[in-house]
Design brief:
2 domains, about 400 residues, 13 helices, Aspartate Aminotransferase, domain 1, alpha/beta, binds pyridoxal-5'-phosphate
């Protein structure tokens, strides 16, 4: 008989009971160092006192009113995102997929409003992941996500990641824009070179199309900047953010420049839950912490310590590991063994990580991790790799 919970996930045989900071405790009382953070979601770690208090205060006051009315928390969070990014306006939704899909709609709407309704196609790159809605799986074009869900939603083309000639050649009279992750997450923790991102900006400008970044995973301080695009010194026209933004509360946002956002007139898009007072309390509390002076420096310090340690492990275990990848606290180890074997071994020793594409083990720890916790993770990695090496011998 089918279990009551639909069998869409191959779950690890473990359930967690509570958490604190970078640690989780399972239902048997075992402690784990959480370098997965619920897939880059628990940006402040588990049960951060400021986030807990903000949500607790709001839940006892008002949870939901709908977007029929003004929501002061939305205005506050939007103004803060506008003040700290390229964006002039923000729309709040509940998840990464929704944030991306709205961005795609906005690309079409922008050209429609500007008298070019034939421009509706969006170009993505290989290794992309943009979410699980019909449009998002059609954008990502990964066989394993599309299988059995055809036909694909029309309007997406894909070119090889890193190949600018292919990108230029793919742009036609129907192209609306380009959509990429500045650091690919699910695809295998690939940080796009800054000159590649700058070239995409130039190409978009040259052809009069839009550039959208999917920073659902790389955003909200994950790479040591509020958003990863900042490293490249350019800005997109549209950006999708989610995962870390609510620190565990489901919250996404689509941000855009005025010329794009102004085409989204009243009635053109909507959501029942998106941006409700409870979600806004969470988002504002996360920004209180992430935007505080010194926070990003801390991310960079921990990231460097961790990256250096991972590089040492790659040098030490060349038969097990191929390379270190990523940026900031979004790091990956590309394996020569099966990535899932390393993830399981690390879990046995009390360290949580997340598998990613291209045989990568992904580390996306809470942004509040300390040097001591980084060292603890590296020690568990060392122990696990030495055991795997012995087993392989
Ligand atoms: C997780 C993710 C999504 C989808 O987010 P959901 O909240 O699962 O809908 C989209 N894009 C990227 C880059 C992601 O990492």
């Amino acid at each position: 008989m089918i279990p009551a919970v639909m069998p869409t996930y191959a779950r690890y045989d473990i359930a967690f009971d509570h958490g604190e900071g970078a640690y989780l405790w399972d239902t048997q009382g075992r402690r784990f160092l959480d370098f997965g953070a619920g897939i880059a979601v628990a940006s402040l770690g588990h049960c951060h006192p400021h986030l807990v208090e903000a949500i607790r205060d709001q839940v006892g006051k008002l949870m939901h009113t709908s977007n029929l009315y003004h929501i002061p928390g939305q205005e506050r969070l939007a103004e803060r995102l506008v003040a700290n990014t390229f964006a002039d306006a923000v729309f709040f939704n509940n998840s990464g997929g929704e944030a991306v899909e709205m961005g795609i709609k906005m690309m079409r709407r922008f050209h429609y409003t500007n008298g070019r309704p034939e421009r509706y196609r969006v170009i993505t790159v290989t290794g992309a992941f943009h979410g699980r809605s019909l449009a998002c799986i059609s954008a990502g074009k990964q066989e394993k996500h599309l299988k059995g869900f055809g036909p694909e939603v029309d309007g997406f083309d894909q070119v090889a990641y890193g190949n600018l000639n292919e990108m230029r050649a793919a742009i036609g009279p129907e192209t609306a824009g380009i959509l990429v992750e500045p650091v690919q997450g699910e695809g295998g923790i690939r940080a796009m070179p800054e000159d590649y991102l700058r070239a995409l900006r130039d190409i978009a400008d040259e052809f009069g199309i839009l550039l959208m970044f999917d920073e659902v995973q790389s955003g909200v301080g994950r790479t040591g900047k509020l958003y990863a695009y900042e490293w490249a010194g350019i800005a997109p026209d549209i950006l999708a953010t989610a995962k870390g933004l609510g620190g565990g509360f489901p919250l996404g946002a689509t941000m855009a420049t005025e010329r794009v956002a102004s085409t989204m007139t009243a009635g053109s898009h909507g959501t029942t839950y998106g941006g409700n007072p409870l979600a806004m309390a969470a988002g504002n509390a996360v920004l209180d912490v992430v935007l505080a002076p010194g926070f990003m420096e801390n991310v960079e310090t921990s990231a460097k310590r961790f990256k250096d340690g991972l590089d040492r492990l790659v040098a030490r275990y060349p038969r097990l590991l191929a390379e270190t990848r990523g940026k900031g606290l979004m790091l990956g180890l590309q394996c020569r063994i099966t990535n899932g074997d390393l993830v399981s071994k690390l879990m046995e020793h009390g360290l949580l990580s997340v598998p990613a594409g291209d045989n990568v083990v992904r580390f996306v720890p809470p942004l509040i991790i300390t040097p001591t916790e980084v060292d603890e993770a590296l020690k568990i990695l060392e122990t696990s790799l030495s055991e795997l090496k012995r087993d392989a011998a």
